Amino acid sequence: xxxxxxxxxxxxxxxxxxxxxxxxxxxxxxxxxxxxxxxxxxxxxxxxxxxxxxxxxxxxxxxxxxxxxxxxxxxxxxxxxxxxxxxxxxxxxxxxxxxxxxxxxxxxxxxxxxxxxxxxxxxxxxxxxxxxxxxxxxxxxxxxxxxxxxxxxxxxxxxxxxxxxxxxxxxxxxxxxxxxxxxxxxxxxxxxxx
Length: 194
Known about the structure:
Oligomer: single chain
Largest sheet: 4 strands, antiparallel
Shape: globular
Helix content: under 10%
Structural class: mainly beta
Number of strands: 20
Strand order of the largest sheet: 5-6-7-8
Number of helices: 1
Order of helices and strands: EEEEEEEEEEEEHEEEEEEEE
């Protein structure tokens, strides 16, 4: 990478076509091959994510296949990973409330959005607080408290059972019980570490 573009060592191929923001969009593969890529805003779960505010849609491009899927049922204000193959999206409803759901890699919505707190998504993600999704579970931070849903939208742990639930990692999450102590729970809500 230099001031005038991107070039692969040992190749005469250069990428000098810039978009309006001054960036060239390329994919650098694990074998070192560089290819042009469609414009994108961020990379989530290995997919190139591009927002289109005018059309109120988000496209997800798989750089390995070049296939693009578009999600336009709702316009997400926040997108994050939801495990290896899914996406957590936050939507602002017409009522001013925030709703969460999970998309698969083909951008199919796995369940109807559920109401939760907005919080500060960037801070919460780094701190492991608030609504998050992993291990096939959505930990929902709502006005009723923390609850856990599976990726079909079924409630596994009702709100109010724990005052706080951290993200699941390898099937275990830390949850704060009524004694203000953390316990380890499995994806079905059973206490496995006390």
